[in-house]
C-alpha cells in the first residue's frame, strides 16, 4: 500500500516543532528536508537543529547538502530511520550507501529533476532501500509537478528495482494517483498539505485518491 510522507522544509525551530506536533496526530512517518546554500537560496535549518527535536514520528531525512555522508553519524545518533542523499553533491554514491549501512541506517539516493538518470550508479542503487525521484527542482517548495518524473519511476521498475520509490515535489490531488500508477509507493507531500485550509481533510482526500486507484 503506498504511503504519504509529509515533508518538512523549514528555517526555524518554531516551525519545525509546529509541524512535527501536527503530523504526530496524522501519520507515522515524515520526511525532514535539509537543504544548504548549494541547493537553494533559502536554506533550511541545519542538520543538527533539524534532527535534535524530539518526536514520536519515524523520520526520513532528505540531505540536500554537500557531501551528505558527513551527516550520517548525526542521523544515527538522533534516531533517524532513513537517510536519503542527493547524488549531485556527493563524491561517491557507493561510499555513502556503505557508510549508511555500516551505521544500520536505511539508505536512499535522490535524483534531482535536471539530473540524467544515467548519473545514478546502478550497481549501488540496487542495494539501497529507497530511490527518491524529484518531480521539481530540489530545495524549493510549491513548484509545478514535472511529468518526466513518472517516466523515471517506470524506468526504475522496468530495471527491476523492487524497493521503495519516492516521488517528491508537486504531489497533490491531481498528481498523486499518477505517481502510484507509475510505480511509486512513497509520496512525499509538502505545500499541498501545509498550505491547505484544513490539513486533516486534505490528507484524507489524498489518501482517498490512493485508495481509489489501488482498488
Quick summary:
The chain is α/β, with parallel strands linked by helices and 215 residues long.
Topology record:
Elements: E1 3-8, H1 13-24, E2 29-35, H2 47-52, E3 58-64, H3 72-77, E4 82-86, H4 93-102, E5 106-111, H5 122-125, E6 130-134, H6 148-158, E7 164-168, H7 176-182, E8 186-189, H8 191-194, H9 199-214
Parallel strand pairs: 1-2, 1-8, 2-3, 3-4, 4-5, 5-6, 6-7, 7-8
Verbal overview:
With 215 residues, the protein is an alpha/beta fold. The chain has one domain (3-214): Aldolase class I (TIM Barrel). Helix content is 35%, strand content 21%. The protein has nine helices and eight strands. The chain has helices spanning 13-24, 47-52, 72-77, 93-102, 122-125, 148-158, 176-182, 191-194, 199-214, and strands spanning 3-8, 29-35, 58-64, 82-86, 106-111, 130-134, 164-168, 186-189. An eight-stranded parallel barrel has the order 1-2-3-4-5-6-7-8, surrounded by five helices. Helix 7 (176-182) runs parallel beside helix 9. The radius of gyration is 16 Å and the shape is globular. The protein starts with a strand and ends with a helix.
Amino acid at each position: 500500500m503506498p504511503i504519504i510522507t509529509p515533508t518538512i522544509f523549514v528555517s526555524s525551530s518554531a516551525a519545525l516543532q509546529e509541524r512535527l506536533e501536527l503530523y504526530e496526530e496524522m501519520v507515522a512517518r515524515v520526511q525532514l528536508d535539509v537543504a544548504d546554500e548549494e541547493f537553494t537560496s533559502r536554506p533550511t535549518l541545519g542538520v543538527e537543529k533539524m534532527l535534535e527535536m524530539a518526536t514520536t514520528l519515524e523520520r526520513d531525512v532528505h540531505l540536500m547538502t554537500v557531501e551528505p555522508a558527513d551527516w550520517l553519524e548525526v542521523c544515527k545518533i538522533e534516531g533517524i530511520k532513513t537517510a536519503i542523499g542527493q547524488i549531485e553533491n556527493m563524491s561517491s554514491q557507493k561510499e555513502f550507501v556503505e557508510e549508511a549501512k555500516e551505521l544500520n541506517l536505511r539508505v536512499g539516493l535522490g535524483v534531482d529533476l535536471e539530473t540524467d538518470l544515467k548519473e545514478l550508479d546502478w550497481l549501488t542503487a540496487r542495494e539501497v532501500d529507497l530511490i527518491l525521484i524529484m518531480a521539481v527542482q530540489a530545495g524549493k517548495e510549491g513548484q509545478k509537478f514535472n511529468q518526466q518524473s513518472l517516466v523515471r519511476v517506470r524506468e526504475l521498475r522496468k530495471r527491476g528495482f523492487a524497493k521503495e520509490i519516492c516521488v517528491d515535489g508537486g504531489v497533490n490531488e491531481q498528481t498523486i494517483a499518477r505517481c502510484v500508477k507509475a510505480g511509486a509507493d512513497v509520496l512525499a507531500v509538502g505545500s499541498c498539505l501545509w498550505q491547505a485550509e484544513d490539513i486533516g481533510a486534505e490528507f484524507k482526500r489524498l489518501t482517498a485518491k490512493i485508495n481509489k486507484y489501488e482498488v
